[in-house]
Amino acid sequence: MRLPTILLLLMAAPAVAVEPVTPADSPIVVYRSDDGYDDVRDALVTAIEGQGIKITNTLHIGDMLERTAADTGLTRRIYRKAESLEFCSIPLSYRMSLAHPANMATCPLTISIFQKATADDGVYLAFRRPRMLGDAADAERALLEFLDGIVQETLE
After folding, report:
1. Alpha helix segments (H runs only) across 36-136
2. How distant, in Å, are the alpha carbons of 19, 22, 143 from that of 45?
3. How far apart are the first and last CA of the chain?
4. 128 — phi, psi (to 5°)?
5. Cis check: omega of the bond before 130, within 30 degrees of 0
6. Could you read off the pLDDT tens digit of each residue along the chain, which spans 156 residues?
7. Which InterPro entries match (predicted)?
8. Domain of residue 146, CATH code
9. pTM of the prediction?
10. C-alpha–C-alpha distance, residues 91 and 101, integer Å
11. Which residues does 8 contact at the CB level (< 8 Å), separation at least 6?
């Protein structure tokens, strides 16, 4: 009788939010996961698409750096795997542009996922902390909450 009650309570408990590994005022917000790269990437895609948003581009940063290493002389390997997913939220883009037309430079939105080449310490998700022109405090806060919500859902 106790086990079903405990399981029910655990299932009903709210999920605990994961905290970033970067300071609160960092220009880049970074989270870490112990899950595998492909699992985290799949969860990130699902979280973005679950918002009704299409991923418009995937930048294969790790592959690009590896592919061009010999030609550029930049041979120190940084990532085991690294990608950036680009997407756009029309309502948030509109709010940002209302605050100042130049805020359109904030789009597309990007969340990066990577594993470090020299350490087996997990998978990282990162995004830029919004900084905008004009009277944009509300738009910045909304965008930060939006991006953070996607990452939180990814890491659940």
Report:
1. 37-49, 61-72, 90-99
2. 20, 23, 18
3. 28
4. -75, 135
5. no
6. 454 544 444 444 445 578 999 999 999 999 999 999 999 999 999 999 999 999 999 999 999 999 999 999 999 999 999 999 999 999 999 999 999 999 999 999 999 999 999 888 899 999 999 999 999 999 999 999 999 999 999 999
7. TT1751-like_sf
8. 3.30.310.70
9. 0.87
10. 14
11. none
Number of structural domains the chain divides into:
1
Q: Is residue 12 part of a domain?
A: no
The answer to whether residue 34 sits within a structural domain is yes
Phi, psi of 49 (to 5 degrees): -65, -25
Q: How far apart are CA 102 and CA 151, in angstroms?
A: 26
Q: Identify the bridge partners of residue 86 per DSSP, sorted by sequence position.
A: 57, 110
Strand partners, 79: 116
Cβ density class 88-121: b for 16+ within 10 Å, e for less: ebeebbebbbebeeebeebbebbbbbbbbbeeee
Tokens for 147, please give them: 């991006």
Residue 19 in domain:
no
* Any domain includes 103: yes
